[in-house]
Design brief:
Layout: E1 4-11, E2 16-21, H1 34-40, E3 48-54, E4 57-64, E5 70-74, H2 88-91, E6 96-100, H3 124-139, E7 143-148, H4 150-161, E8 166-172, H5 189-201, H6 203-212, H7 215-225, H8 234-244, H9 249-257, H10 265-268, E9 276-281, H11 289-292, E10 301-307, H12 314-317, H13 319-343
Parallel strand pairs: 1-10, 5-6, 5-7, 7-8, 8-9, 9-10
Antiparallel strand pairs: 1-2, 3-4, 4-6
Helix pairs in contact: 3-4, 5-6, 7-8
InterPro entries: AB_hydrolase_1 (IPR000073), AB_hydrolase_fold (IPR029058)
Protein name: AB hydrolase-1 domain-containing protein
Domain AB hydrolase-1: 71-323
Length: 344
């Protein structure tokens, strides 16, 4: 399927969504289907929370919807499945939706990384394995991954490890991992390692976390990455802050911010076998769209959709833009899979 560079405009006031491509042509799969529009008018479904036992660890996930393609929503660093609270009820009208707390976050267990010795535990390989097992044990079907920020690396890693489990991956402002060791000059790498050692093995790291884990600090951070700061509500602040105050959260936090190895998105995208759609909030101050556009050129990426006047977390800041984009992407490839199955 040819790649498209498209701009995605949402007009909440008059109740419709318009896709307009930068080259003046409308992509065939751009508009939400009539079925999706009809489902948006259906009553909201109930979202349930459950616990899944994964290799002896308790993993919290939320789920809703009884029919349609399976979607697995993957949060970013410091967030949790509640960051999809504006998406789950809407998408569940026509999909089976699952939103998982990655191990180490929210109500999932937080094993101390030190118990694993020199081996890193909180890695994309660990989370990718967790998601693949989740799809086998809980979803029990091929799924679409809908990912934000660091969650995009997790989704890509899972899809590379077990490609037969996935029908498509949607990346919303995927982390470009600009602090990755490979992206640092050789002369700066020893300093980075020394700083990471300081954070992980002295009280400096815990002091740093104590400063960050306050309502004021969380609100300030969110106001940096949300272009529309009116969306930074007290509810959102608490949903991000409270999990960080639970036992073990500080060790997970420090372990991950010191994780400067592992895969880069440009290393995973060429290996992905399923279609990928990238959505990018054009006002993201952390992952600039000028850098993000380059990722739309990979063969696995069929479309790069610009989300105007949106920051780093489009699914929460602008769900009226993101939800139809998800529905359109899933409907296009679910129908394609069905037609291929019928033909064979």
């Amino acid at each position: 399927m040819p790649r498209r560079m498209s701009k995605f405009y949402g007009f909440e006031s008059n109740g419709f969504i318009l896709f307009s491509s930068l080259n003046g042509q409308i992509g065939e799969g751009s508009f939400p289907s009539p079925e999706a529009t009809a489902n948006n008018n259906a009553p909201e479904v109930q979202v349930q929370s459950s616990i899944w036992n994964w290799r002896g660890y308790s993993i919290r996930y939320q789920h809703a919807g009884n029919s349609g393609p399976a979607l697995v929503l993957i949060h970013g660093f410091g967030a949790n499945s509640d960051h999809w609270r504006k998406n789950i009820p809407v998408l569940a009208k026509s999909h089976r939706v699952y939103s998982i707390d990655l191990i180490g976050y929210r109500y999932s267990d937080k094993p101390n990384p030190r118990q694993f010795g020199e081996s890193s535990f909180y890695t994309f390989e660990t989370w990718g394995t967790q998601l693949n097992d989740f799809c086998i044990d809980v979803v029990e079907d091929e799924a679409f991954f809908i990912c934000n920020s660091i969650g995009g690396l997790v989704g890509l890693q899972a899809a590379v490890m077990e490609p037969q489990l996935y029908k498509g991956v949607m990346l919303l402002n995927i982390s470009l991992r600009m602090l990755h060791i490979k992206k640092q000059p050789w002369y700066g790498r020893p300093l980075i390692r020394s700083f990471q050692h300081l954070l992980r093995n002295t009280d400096v790291g815990k002091y740093f976390f104590k400063i960050v884990a306050t309502p004021e600090s969380v609100r300030n951070i969110l106001c940096q990455c949300y272009h529309d700061t009116s969306q930074v509500t007290e509810e959102l602040v608490q949903k991000i802050l409270l999990p960080g105050l639970e036992p073990g959260a500080v060790d997970v936090f420090l372990e991950f911010i010191c994780y400067s190895g592992g895969p880069l998105p440009e290393e995973l995208l060429p290996q992905v076998k399923c279609p990928v759609l990238i959505g990018w909030g054009e006002k993201d101050p952390w992952e600039p769209i000028e850098l993000g556009r380059a990722y739309g050129k990979f063969n696995s990426v069929e479309d790069f959709a610009v989300l105007p006047n949106v920051g780093h977390c489009p699914q929460d800041e602008a769900p009226d833009l993101v939800n139809p984009l998800v529905e359109s992407f899933v409907a296009r490839h679910a129908a394609l899979s069905a037609s291929i199955s019928t033909a064979t």
